[in-house]
Amino acid sequence: MTTSINLLSGGGSRQYRDPDISPEGPNSAAPLSDEDRARNENLVERYADELYHADAATIFEWTREHVHGPTVITMSMENTVLAELAQEHLPGTDLLFLDTEYHFDETIEVADAVEKRYPSSRLIRTHAVLSRAEQDSVYGKDLYRRNPTACCRMRKVEPLQRHLSPYVAMIDGLRRDDGPTRAEAPALSLNKTGRLKISPIITWSLEETDAFIRERDLIVHPLTLQGYPSIGCATCTLPVAAGEDPRAGRWAGSAKTECGLHTD
């Protein structure tokens, strides 16, 4: 039975679904085969410590040598470093962009530019089961204000999991320098479905990332030049002051620090 709550003041009668209950439809990855799961577990056990301090080239080359099965690169479009590194080390690897429908216009423009600059890699744009308007209708307007965790789950975490089904491994742009919640993140681990989670630029600082972008003349997200070192949805991201935690502008004013993509 669907649980509903009344979110309207003044005695309104409109009933909305409990945001802890996701919309009907696929919201998780298909199980890996026992063979793939066992192989991934063995790889993490053997190599996680060795790769903990490894550089990006080493981790990409390790991926090419040891991962036997389809791999996907997840991109937030905050920068395009992973697309550039993949072209060099893993050409043709799929790129996955979570289009939440709440992005800055500039983020969508970067995604369009990536598709043109790296045509050998297929850019997959994921969407939530419900459109933004449908979510407002089912859960009440601006869920991101009332329950940002539920909004992130429905528009980021579940779409990502659903689109991981064809792959045995995913590559992300996680960096320990991003903030205290990521300070000891591994370069190689397993997600909850047993897929490899690989973070090639895990040791990079923001300064090293920016230097690589300049050296390669990469596509630049314009907001990173306007005080946005970490960029999420436009509704939930603010610029930060010089010297602040790069992620201080994410879900500003709330206790939330992660969308769930790197903790699920």
UniProtKB/TrEMBL annotation:
Subcellular location, principal: cytoplasm
Cofactor(s) this protein cannot do without: [4Fe-4S] cluster
Record carries keyword Transcription regulation: no
Reaction(s) catalysed by this chain's protein: [thioredoxin]-disulfide + sulfite + AMP + 2 H(+) = adenosine 5'-phosphosulfate + [thioredoxin]-dithiol
EC code: 1.8.4.10
Cellular compartments annotated: Cytoplasm
Key words, A-Z: Cytoplasm, Iron, Iron-sulfur, Metal-binding, Oxidoreductase
Residues the record marks as active site: 259
Protein's name according to its UniProt entry: Adenosine 5'-phosphosulfate reductase
One of the GO BP terms on file: sulfate assimilation, phosphoadenylyl sulfate reduction by phosphoadenylyl-sulfate reductase (thioredoxin)
Family stated for the protein in its record: Belongs to the PAPS reductase family. CysH subfamily.
SUPFAM superfamilies registered for this protein in UniProt: Adenine nucleotide alpha hydrolases-like
Residues annotated as binding [4Fe-4S] cluster: 151-152, 233, 236
Molecular function GO labels: 4 iron, 4 sulfur cluster binding; adenylyl-sulfate reductase (thioredoxin) activity; metal ion binding; phosphoadenylyl-sulfate reductase (thioredoxin) activity
Note accompanying the cofactor annotation: Binds 1 [4Fe-4S] cluster per subunit.
Taxonomic lineage: Bacteria, Bacillati, Actinomycetota, Actinomycetes, Mycobacteriales
Region of interest called Disordered, as start-end residue ranges on this chain: 1-37
Coiled coil: none
Location of the Phosphoadenosine phosphosulphate reductase domain: 75-239
Summary of the function given for this chain in its UniProt record: Catalyzes the formation of sulfite from adenosine 5'-phosphosulfate (APS) using thioredoxin as an electron donor.
Pathway membership, UniProt: Sulfur metabolism; hydrogen sulfide biosynthesis; sulfite from sulfate
GO cellular component, one term: cytoplasm
